[in-house]
Amino acid sequence: MRILLVDDHTMFRMGLVMQLQQLRPEAQAVQCDSPQAARALFGGADFPFDVIVLDLGMPGFHRLEALSYFRGLCPEVPCVVVSGNEDPQLVRDCVEMGAFGFIPKSADAAQLSQALDCITSGNVWLPGSAVSVGPGGPAPATVWSKARVHITERQRDVLRGLVQGKTNKMIARDLGISDGTVKTHVTNLMELLQVNTRTQIVFELARLGIRIEDMVAPPAGGSLTA
Predict the structure, then answer these.
(1) What is the pTM of this model?
(2) What stretch of H or E contains 6?
(3) How confident is the model at residue 176 (pLDDT cuts 50, 70, 90)?
(4) For residue 29, is it left (φ>0), alpha (ψ between -120 and 50) or beta?
């Protein structure tokens, strides 16, 4: 696993690298103290990393600007945010912009390990405080059952694009289908997971611990969602 760690706090970077080395002895971690330093180090052309671990609160970057910077620079590399601010709205905003995860700076080694496993597998990891729901939310067993019975291979492809923060147009281009077809699939996925927005789809998957790879088409003879 190749990790780019971007944080302007030296002590935090060192501590996180120590944890990463204990969790993943084979991992290669490169440290930078700013997004500009990361770009200068690699020329801004090719980022040879499996995941970017990014602190939001760096000098010269307000709120989500650092995340936006890396999403534009290397959109295919999963980016996970680390922050001392666990405000649920901030977490949602990060997911909306395409972050694959949000790790609180209070997270322990076990949470960090779980997050990295989840993110490098192409899924989103979020803290429990961000994905908890109140009474009246869909029952996990019901949603899981529905997901396993009704999702198609094409819907799974669209879902992967959603998790990666791609727009309908980008997903359509990747899959060779029309924007309208992608929109239809997104609408069906929202109905399937009983949510109202694209971001809520990602949150619901994270809340239920459902991996995209686990969402499969039904056996022969079963019904599929269009």
Answers:
(1) 0.63
(2) strand 2-6
(3) very high
(4) beta
